[in-house]
UniProtKB/TrEMBL annotation:
UniProt name for this protein: MGT4C acetylglucosaminyltransferase
Pathway noted in the entry: Protein modification; protein glycosylation
Domain MGAT4 conserved region span(s) in chain numbering: 82-338
Native species: Polypterus senegalus
Coiled coil: none
Statement: the UniProt record of this protein carries the keyword Metal-binding: no
């Protein structure tokens, strides 16, 4: 710049007119101003890719170190959005092999996600899909959508399985109740050279890390489909009317929650808010190589301030397979709290339950009425009872009582009946009904009586389970359900 100024001065000296001097002075001042501005705007720091680095204003640094801090800024306008880039679903390209997304105006109550890979010995996917639809009523089916994620890296295997699904469940595909998807292998994080946490074999670390990514992709896809999202495995048998059971339990919860489980096995039966699925997907991908999926799911609900898992009993889903998807290892794990016959739940108005049967551990009679567990008692003798006392008199339409369980099939009421009563008498733990009338005997541990409102028009205050004979086996009552007559 100094050289250029000297040239301008020399030119002025060769001109003697005032006009020339004035014009030259204007040119000189303009030139100096332009060059000074360019120097001030030229970055003195290195440029990297699409970003340039700019020093933080160090005119008044709070610490000497701040003089060396650099802030990365885009050359162009910022395109980052917290909503789109963090909270919305990941922009993952999916292959939709079967079905199509339901219309946006038809957001379902429940989306069910199943991730599946082909096994060498036994495959249970078709049986699982059949169980999902078979165990739901037509009304329940209209409230759900099943998404099957075929996680085989060989696309030809996925296409073959999709064809088999199509041949058996085309009705549900056409009705937007069944969608089959896959993803390209290139979308997965690295599965080679992973850390061997917990000293697991390399092949198992690779298997479980891929599985975390599988469920992340599956959860991400289901975000916009429904209000709630349920995880199942591809070797599961479902309880009758499980969607109705889930709805009733969810509606009865108070306070915020992140995860509810409807099974005691792994990640079977885990329920989430769909609005949390983008976070869940990112969580599983972030820690995909650290630990198994069921462990990560525990950490997820804890990270959302839910300290303990919320568990629904009895279990609504049962593991049916005999071989694991990992190297076809034997796996005969069963949920001893599963009840296939759990079925549609009753109205179960507020009530208090008590019994004179010796209770085993914390298996109180109230649990089999509230749906939070089951009653388990021992040393039965004739005359023992389990009494339901309603808070207000009700007109009953139906009563159903189920004893025993899949794991404890012998712990049924072998000889007994149910009765209903009127006119409460007594106080506290002596409270009971003055008059009782039998409504039926237990058969093979079960009792179901319908149309009570037609035969007994009066409102009742009690339902009582009565033991008629001694038995060496314990008594497990899985569920007491009552339905109210609605005019």
């Amino acid at each position: 710049m100094v050289k250029n100024i000297r040239l301008v001065i020399a030119w002025l000296c060769r001109r003697s007119t005032i006009a020339a001097l004035f014009l030259g002075l204007v040119i000189l001042l303009t030139y100096i101003h332009i060059k000074t501005s360019i120097v001030e705007e030229t970055p003195s720091t290195p440029q990297i890719g699409d970003f340039h680095w700019q020093k933080v204003d160090d005119r008044h640094p709070s610490t000497p170190q701040e003089k060396n801090i650099f802030v990365r800024q885009k050359k162009e306008s910022l395109h980052f959005s917290t909503k789109e880039d963090v909270l919305d679903p990941l922009k993952i390209p999916y292959n939709i092999l079967l079905g199509s997304l339901p219309p946006s105006s038809q957001t379902k109550y429940l989306s069910i996600g199943i991730s599946s890979i082909k096994r060498n010995k036994e495959n249970y996917l078709m049986d699982t899909i059949e169980s999902v639809f078979k165990q739901l009523s037509p009304q329940e089916q209209d409230e759900m959508v099943l998404v099957v994620f075929l996680a085989n890296f060989d696309s030809s295997v996925n296409i073959q399985i999709a064809k088999e699904i199509s041949s058996k469940f085309q009705e549900h595909i056409d009705s937007h109740r069944l969608i089959v998807i896959s993803c390209s292998k290139e979308l997965y994080p690295s599965l080679e050279g992973l850390k061997r946490n917990f000293n697991d074999p390399e092949d198992r670390v690779k298997y479980r890390s891929k599985q975390n990514a599988d469920y992340a992709f599956l959860a991400n896809f289901c975000t916009v489909l429904s209000q709630y999202f349920l995880i199942l495995e591809d070797d599961v048998y479902c309880s009758k009317n499980f969607l109705t059971s889930i709805k009733k339990h969810v509606s009865g919860l108070q306070g915020a929650w992140a995860t509810i489980t409807f099974s005691k096995l792994g990640y079977i039966g885990k329920l989430y808010h769909n609005e949390d699925l983008p976070k869940l997907a990112r969580f599983l991908l972030m820690f995909y190589d650290e630990m198994p999926c069921d462990w990560l799911l525990e950490h997820f609900h804890q990270s959302k301030a839910q300290k303990e898992m919320i568990r629904f009993k009895p279990s609504l889903f049962q593991h049916m397979g005999s071989f694991s998807s990992f190297q076809d290892n034997p796996n005969k794990l069963k949920d001893d709290e599963f009840q296939e016959f759990y079925g549609e739940t009753g109205d179960n108005p507020p009530a208090v339950l008590r019994t004179d049967i010796t209770i085993y551990e914390e298996n109180l009679p109230q649990k089999c009425y509230d749906g939070t567990g089951y009653f388990w008692g021992k040393t039965l003798i004739p005359g023992n009872y389990v009494l339901v006392i309603f808070s207000q008199s009700v007109q009953l339409q139906k009563v159903r009582i189920i004893t025993g369980s899949e794991e404890h099939k012998a712990d049924i009421l072998q000889s007994g009946y149910a009765e209903i009563g009127w006119e409460l008498v007594g106080e506290n733990d002596q409270r009971t009904c003055k008059t009782f009338v039998s409504i039926g005997d237990f058969k093979e541990g079960k009792l179901e009586v319908n149309d009570l409102d037609k035969n007994i028009p009066n409102k009742v205050d009690c339902v009582n389970v009565k033991v008629k004979g001694s038995q060496s086996e314990w008594l497990l009552i899985g569920k007491i359900d009552v339905w109210i007559a609605h005019s």
